[in-house]
TrEMBL record:
It comes from Strongyloides papillosus. Residues 174-333 form the Integrase catalytic domain. PROSITE patterns: INTEGRASE. GO terms for molecular function: nucleic acid binding; RNA-directed DNA polymerase activity. Residues 1-17 have a biased composition (Basic and acidic residues). PANTHER family: PROTEIN CBG26694, PROTEIN NYNRIN-LIKE. It comes from the Eukaryota. This is RNA-directed DNA polymerase. One of its GO terms (biological process) is DNA integration. Its EC number is 2.7.7.49.
Length: 462
C-alpha cells in the first residue's frame, strides 16, 4: 500500500475542494481485453460497453435532487461533499467510520446502465448480491425499488432460478481464518464436452471467506485432480484441511498421499449425505446456474466461462459474511466498471486512517466480523426451518430396525426401489448411524446420516 493511499480523507478534504486522484488498471475489463482473447473471445458478457458520451458530472448536473442537495449540503438526509467535481454522499461504513460514495442520478438511462454492471454483466447473481455490489461503489436513492423492477424483468434469471427451499436443521462448523478449510466437489460429466475436451468442473471454496476457485478438467481422475490442487497451492498457498464427499477418487490412497505431501488434513462428509459438504454443493449450483445464464449459443465453450463466473461470485457480497469473498481474501476491493462509470478509484474514508503497520489488526477485525455474521446467519436460518420437518437425533437409538435410503437402480431410475432393509443400528455417533443389513451373512457395517433412515415396521406392527 502506498503512503499517499494511507492518508485520511479528513486531511485532504477541505470545504468541498476538488481532489485529483490517479487512475489504475481496471480488473473488470481485463476479461474482455483483446490481448487476452484466449480467455474470452468476441463477447461482451463480462464487460459493459459504457456509452462514450456518458459523464457522471454532467448527469448529476441534470438531476434536480442533486442540484438541490448542492445548496442544502444534504442528500437523502445525509451530508454531501464534492470530489473531482462529483457529488458524494456520506454513509456509514462496514469497516468503521464513514464512506463517501458518488451519488448516482436516478434517471432511467443511468439506472439501467448501473443495473447492467451490477447484475447482467456480473454473473446474473440474485437481487441482494446486486444491491450489495452497488452499495460498495455508489449511492442510488431508492435502489431496492429500482433494482427490484429490473430484476423482475430479467428473462435470463427467470428461466434458470428456482424458488428457495427449506431444509432440516444442520450443525455449523466455524472457521476463524482464510484457508483454514476448503470444501471441494466435482460436477460432471457435462454434456456436451467443450471444444477443449473438458467434461468436469472441480471446485474449491474457502469455508471461512467463501472465496471460490474452479477448474474445468477433461477426466475425473487422480492426475487431473492433483494438477488442479497443485495450481491452487502454488497460487494461493496450502489450506490447513480439505473437506470432500465420499466419491472414490477422494477416498483413494493416492489422493490422501498427495495431501500428506503438503501437510493438508483430509476430512470426509457423512456417506450418502451431500449436505454434509453443503458449501461445495451450493458453490457448484451457483456455478451451474451461472453457466446456464451466460453460455447462450456458445455451448461448446462453456469452460471459458468458469473462471470469470468465479471472479464475479467472489467480488459480489456474500450474505453469510456480509462482505465479498474477494475482500476477505485480498483485504482490498476490486476495481470494476462501476469505478470507471462513477470516476472513482477507491471508497474515500472520512474519519478512519488505516496505516500499513495496522494491516494485521485490520485483517483480524475483518475476519472476526465475518465470523460473527456467519454465526448470526446460521442462527437466522434455523428459524426458517419448519419444526415439523426437523428430525431429532433421539428418534433413532442403538438396536432399532430401520430402512436405509439406498436406491436399487437395477430396474432403472423410474422403477427403482428407494429404500432397502431392514437394517439394525449397531451404534450412534451424533447424527450418524452405524448399520448392518439383517439378512446379510457378512454383517458389513456402513455409516449413514439419519436423514437417510426411516423406522422399519413389520407386518405385525402395521
Amino acid at each position: 500500500m502506498k503512503d499517499d493511499a494511507k492518508q485520511s480523507i479528513n486531511d485532504a478534504l477541505k470545504d468541498n475542494e476538488d481532489i485529483n486522484t490517479p487512475q489504475i488498471a481496471n480488473e473488470h475489463s481485463f476479461l474482455s481485453n483483446k490481448d487476452h482473447s484466449s480467455c474470452i473471445n468476441n463477447t461482451t458478457l463480462f464487460h459493459t460497453i459504457l456509452p462514450n458520451n456518458f459523464n457522471i458530472r454532467d448527469k448529476q448536473q441534470l438531476d434536480l435532487e442533486i442540484i438541490a442537495a448542492m445548496k442544502s449540503k444534504i442528500y437523502d438526509n445525509k451530508p454531501i461533499q464534492v470530489i473531482n467535481g462529483i457529488v458524494h454522499v456520506q454513509v456509514p461504513s462496514k469497516e468503521g467510520g464513514n464512506d463517501l460514495l458518488p451519488i448516482i442520478p436516478s434517471d432511467p438511462e443511468t439506472c439501467q446502465l448501473v443495473f447492467n454492471i451490477c447484475h447482467t454483466q456480473s454473473g446474473h447473481f440474485g437481487l441482494e448480491k446486486s444491491l450489495e455490489f452497488l452499495k460498495t461503489y455508489g449511492y442510488l436513492k431508492k435502489s431496492r425499488k429500482i433494482f427490484e423492477q429490473f430484476y423482475k424483468e430479467c428473462i435470463t434469471c427467470a428461466e434458470v432460478n428456482s424458488p428457495l427451499q427449506k431444509h432440516c436443521e444442520m450443525k455449523t462448523v466455524q472457521y476463524s481464518r482464510p484457508f483454514e478449510n476448503l470444501a471441494v466437489d466435482i460436477c460432471g460429466p457435462i454434456q456436451p464436452a467443450s471444444q477443449r475436451g473438458n467434461k468436469f468442473i472441480i471446485i474449491f471454496i474457502d469455508s471461512m471467506t467463501r472465496f471460490t476457485m474452479a477448474y474445468p478438467i477433461k477426466k475425473y481422475d487422480y492426475e487431473h485432480v492433483i494438477e488442479c490442487l497443485q495450481d491452487l497451492v502454488f497460487t494461493h498457498g496450502a489450506p490447513v484441511s480439505i473437506r470432500c464427499d465420499n466419491a472414490p477418487n477422494f477416498k483413494s490412497h493416492s489422493w490422501k498421499d498427495a495431501l500428506d505431501v503438503v501437510n493438508i488434513n483430509l476430512q470426509h462428509s457423512t456417506e450418502y449425505h451431500s449436505r454434509g459438504n453443503s458449501l461445495a454443493e451450493r458453490a457448484l449450483r451457483n456455478l451451474q446456474d451461472g453457466l446456464k445464464k451466460l453460455i447462450k449459443e456458445d455451448v461448446l465453450n462453456w469452460d471459458k466461462y468458469v473462471k470469470p463466473l468465479c471472479y464475479f461470485y467472489n467480488i459480489n457480497i456474500c450474505k453469510s459474511t456480509n462482505t465479498s469473498p474477494y475482500f476477505l481474501h485480498y483485504l482490498r476491493q476490486p476495481y470494476t466498471d462501476l469505478n470507471k462509470l462513477l470516476q472513482t478509484d477507491v471508497k474515500y474514508k472520512v474519519d478512519i486512517n488505516r496505516p500499513l503497520s495496522e494491516i494485521v489488526q485490520y485483517a483480524k477485525k475483518a475476519y472476526e466480523t465475518a465470523n460473527a455474521v456467519i454465526l448470526r446467519s446460521s442462527e437466522a436460518r434455523k428459524a426458517l426451518v419448519n419444526p415439523k420437518y426437523i428430525l431429532e437425533q433421539s428418534h433413532f437409538k442403538e438396536g432399532d430396525k430401520v430402512y436405509a435410503k439406498l436406491p436399487d437402480f437395477s430396474r432403472g431410475r423410474k422403477l427403482a426401489k428407494k429404500w432397502k432393509g431392514p437394517y439394525t443400528i449397531e451404534k450412534m455417533e451424533d447424527a450418524v448411524a452405524f448399520i448392518t443389513l439383517d439378512n446379510s451373512p457378512k454383517k458389513k457395517i456402513r455409516k449413514l446420516h439419519i436423514d437417510k433412515l426411516k423406522k422399519f415396521r413389520s407386518n405385525k406392527e402395521e
